[in-house]
Amino acid sequence: MKFGGNCVEGEANQAHTAQRILEARERGLSPVVVVSAMGRGGPYSTSGLEKFIRGIGPKIEPRERDLVMSCGEIIATVAMAHFLKTKGEMSVALTGGQAGLITDLYYGSAQVVDVQREGLLRWLDEGYIVFVTGFQGITPTHDITTLGEGGSDYTAIALAFALQQPRAGLLEQRIELDPVHIYKEVDGVMTANPDNFDQGTPDRPKLLPSLTYDEMVDMSKLGAQVMQHKAALMARQQRLAVLIKNFATDAAGTEISPATEGRALREVTGVADMGNLFVFTLPRQTPRLAAQLSEDLARQRLAHWEIASEPEKLLFAVRREKYRDVGLVIEHILFDRDLKAEISEQQWGLVSLVGQGMQGRSREVGARAHAVLRGAEVQVAGAIEGDISVSHLVKEADRKKAVRALHAQFIS
What we know:
With 412 residues, this protein is an alpha/beta fold. The protein has helices at 11-26, 46-56, 62-69, 71-86, 118-125, 151-163, 213-221, 229-238, 289-299, 323-335, 362-375, 399-410, and strands at 2-3, 32-35, 91-94, 101-103, 112-115, 129-133, 136-138, 144-146, 180-184, 210-211, 242-246, 254-256, 270-283, 305-307, 313-319, 342-343, 348-354, 380-385, 389-395. The strands form 4 sheets. The chain has an 8-stranded mixed sheet with strand order 3-6-2-1-9-11-12-10, with helices on both faces. Strands 13, 14, 15, 16, 17, 18 and 19 form a 7-stranded antiparallel sheet that branches. The longest helix is centred in the N-terminal third of the chain and has 16 residues, at 11-26. The protein is globular, with a radius of gyration of 22 Å. The two termini are 32 Å apart. 45% of the residues are buried. The model has no long low-confidence stretch (mean pLDDT 91).
């Protein structure tokens, strides 16, 4: 069970979260609860700790940065474990390292390389409700690392994968695992971000009862608040069942599981969007330039989107907070070629259609989407064509209008 930051902030929300945990306990389950840092903007939230780090100085080492950033989840986890103890429950709080999450040495965006689950199983065998700090792990040399934005989802998926493996012994006991429950403040995954729509309009986004694994992966990569992209990739690879639900209501939520793969395929399942992107424009003069750039950016674990545009140019879109890091990689590659990148002063947005039924037809759907945007007087600067998705680069000022136009045409 993974609970987002707002689910554990304040006594009322903590009570709702405790109720969900105890309901699982009453059904005969042994809850493993992953907790995010509390709320948004508070001193122990992720953004609050980032502000604290900026106050320390601009050149703090990545190792020390991860030490600070791990504190928010530790505080929230201890608070929830204690809250359950006040209700008479046996509970224990563990850091990611104490729960056995072993990562590589890449601070800020670490990958889980192993889960040593023996300690976790020992607490479960003794009847404890186990709380685990999300967003963090530990290296083989015992340094704390963080797992990137949304990393608590990754923690939950990695623990679920480890727990479902057979236990050593003569009978090779296998643990029965319920779906991974990811709790948010919304009823599940919506057909688009409701924040892009006016209240009371008839074409507002609707709850999606199910997604395929591929839809979950693409939507997470293209900006939808489904789950962290690394977590989505791991859930798909291991075929783990996931249920995304509201922590405070009884809404059915959104299911992603092997069972959802066989349902009728929708051409377009949802509209995803990302805002406040920076765009680098590069000359397409040197063979393999785009491939090398993508390889180097991926090696540095920097999210980027290569946009098809004019034949003689390459467009790379990156998140606002990462554009300096991406710029350094690009400058390093272009230096030997005596080339320079142009950096757009304008802010951009990426608006995407995702749907399993688009397989083999994304170019056709992309052309229709382009026509819809042109009819809505939204200028398109470039596009990305995926297997089950198509994305358009638009001005940030037009992003919400573009989402509404595409949602009205392809979903409402």
